[in-house]
């Protein structure tokens, strides 16, 4: 597990507009400070990702997300039930940079259920929560799996060992009642959506 000094170095790098690799409960993620449009642009370049493909953001808790984003009561109930965990909730972007969302007005929000992610997020948030891989390539579950381009573009790599799950998070828009990507907990999420309509 990373040391306090490594966490502090990663947080400082993010505040300076640099990229950081960190583990989540699904796969390794690539972090930029989500409120820094230039850092977000650097992330898109490193991933070789089309600018119209949004990236999600991570917070240390649902209350931290609610402090910054205009969540509906239904979104808040859902997040309190399923987060932290391998779920991305699509909500209003609020004041976050449009670069995150290809100019769209909605953004995916995660609260990862991983001690390294949460320790980093306690120091600096929100950060981007997109997989640490070049677009179109396999996601990394260990630091050894990282694409060379991602490693080269990152100021700090936080090694948390192998991630527990190799599947991306379930992506759901609560207000629309739509599951955009199936992943962990999808049946429980569908049941919640049906029950809470």
Tags for this model:
single chain, DHBP synthase, six-stranded mixed β-sheet, 7 helices
What is the 3D shape?
A: globular
What is the CA-atom radius of gyration, in angstroms?
Answer: 15 Å
Helix content range of the residues, please? 25-40%
Largest sheet: 6 strands, mixed
CATH architecture call:
Alpha-Beta Complex
What is the CATH topology assignment? DHBP synthase
Beta fraction: 15-25%
Spell out the helices and strands N to C: HEEHEHHEEHEEHEEEH
Structural class: alpha/beta
Runs in which pLDDT lies below 50 for 5 or more consecutive residues are none
Number of domains: 1
The total count of helices amounts to: 7
What is the class in the CATH system? Alpha Beta
- The strand line-up of the biggest sheet is 6-3-5-4-9-10
**CATH homologous superfamily designation:** DHBP synthase
Quote the distance from N terminus to C terminus: 42 Å
Q: What is the residue-averaged pLDDT? A: 95
Strand count: 10
Q: What's this entry about, in short?
A:
This protein is of the alpha/beta class. It has seven helices and ten strands. The chain has a single domain (4-196), classed as Alpha-Beta Complex (DHBP synthase), CATH 3.90.870.
């Amino acid at each position: 597990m990373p040391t306090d000094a490594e966490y502090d170095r990663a947080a400082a790098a993010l505040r300076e507009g640099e990229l950081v690799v960190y583990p989540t409960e699904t796969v390794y993620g690539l972090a930029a400070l989500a409120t820094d449009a230039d850092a977000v642009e650097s992330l898109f370049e490193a991933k070789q990702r089309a600018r119209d493909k949004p990236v999600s953001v991570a917070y240390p808790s649902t209350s931290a997300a609610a402090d910054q984003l205009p969540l509906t009561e239904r979104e808040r109930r859902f997040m309190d039930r399923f987060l932290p965990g391998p779920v991305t909730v699509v909500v209003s972007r609020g004041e976050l940079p449009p670069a995150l969302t290809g100019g769209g007005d909605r953004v995916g929000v995660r609260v990862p259920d991983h001690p390294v992610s949460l320790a980093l997020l306690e120091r600096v948030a929100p950060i981007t929560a997109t997989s640490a891989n070049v677009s179109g390539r396999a996601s990394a579950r260990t630091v050894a799996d990282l694409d060379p381009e991602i490693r080269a573009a990152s100021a700090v790599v936080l090694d948390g060992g192998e991630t527990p799950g190799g599947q991306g998070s379930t992506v759901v828009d609560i207000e629309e009642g739509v599951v955009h990507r199936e992943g962990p907990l999808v049946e429980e999420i569908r049941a919640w959506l049906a029950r809470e309509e």
